[in-house]
Amino acid sequence: MLRYVLLSASGITSPATITFSIASRPDPSKDASVTGTVSAQYQAAQNFARAQIRNFNDRLEQLHGSEDVPSSLNGVHFALPTSQAERGLDTDLWNAALQQQAQLDAQNSLPPALPLGTQTPGQRLSYWTGGYVDFGRDKDATMRLSHTLVGVSTGVDYRFTPTVTAGVGMGFGRDVSDIGDTGTRSNGRSLSTALYASYHPDAVFVDGLLGYSRLDFDSKRHVSETDVYARGSRAGSQVFGALTSGYEFRLPQSLVSPYGRVQISKTHLERYSESDAGMYNLAFAPQRFSQVTGSAGLRAEHRVPVSWGDIRLQSRVEYSRLMNDTGSARVGYADTGNDTWRMSLYEQNRQTLALGVGLDMALPNGVTPGLAYQGTLGLDDRGSRAQTIMARMNVAF
């Protein structure tokens, strides 16, 4: 309220009053579209790290076999017979070879290795590529968040000794997250490089991975006050790694392996401001957060010989627990140049259980394509779910 008078030659006027009504802008930290947008970026960053860790660990598991360990099909190439006589001869030779190999395996003190089908003797260098599509959803009393993530990795590794293999690779990830049902969306991209190595003396193995990612996000947030969309872009970086160890119980046709894993990621997201929403544009402070996850699992494989190679059936059960979570952010209005409000982000399930099945097909000349499915269920009250379809291809040369 403002009171004033006017002065003139004839005197002073009576006081007058002007009343100003200032409408306060809402607290953005209470807006589900705001917390949902930042939560989607936060979760996507973690999912990008998990995508690359999963792809590279999938490759590392295939490096545990050694050519120096006896294997019933190691180094065998298959050719399709062209006549009935050839097929009969191949059957006799095949049965005789299996009997002879079984006798050699029984005499050997080491357990026979499950053949990988990705390398033959003398082929130390291998190229591989793999990736998956992940569909997930989370919800609580105020927000519903769904995402689709694609993670692709490729690399080259070299077997330095029968027990040591190391390689280098790169990966790409893309995430699309929808928040609520008002059109709010976050799009994320990642580009990664990684070094990995496997040490596998006898039946024990230790796998290591270290990588770096560059992140980019574009957001479109619905502003309910004006029914427009605020848009923004931000960049970030990430370091991730994992250490896995376990033991492989090998049989001539099967493998059972209990294992444990610790994986970590450290992420930095830069400051950014929105546009296109006028006085309702927001500014987001830089974010730094890390996650440490411990996992324990059991995987099994069974090989089925066929005329053109072999099929490897796979199954897995894995329990994971999030050790720490620093999910928070600060936000303010862009025209005030501050980050007045602090908000807690949507927290992912701290405990999950994953069940998976898959198969690899070992083809002639060291070519091994594979396909797998995994379902992940959150064990906390949030009840999040994710479904993953994975494909991979290994080529030895």
UniProtKB/TrEMBL annotation:
Entry-linked InterPro entries: Autotransporte_beta, Autotransporte_beta_dom_sf
Ranges of residues in domain Autotransporter: 120-397
Q: What is this protein called?
A: Autotransporter outer membrane beta-barrel domain-containing protein
The species is: Cronobacter sakazakii
Organism lineage reads as: Bacteria, Pseudomonadati, Pseudomonadota, Gammaproteobacteria, Enterobacterales
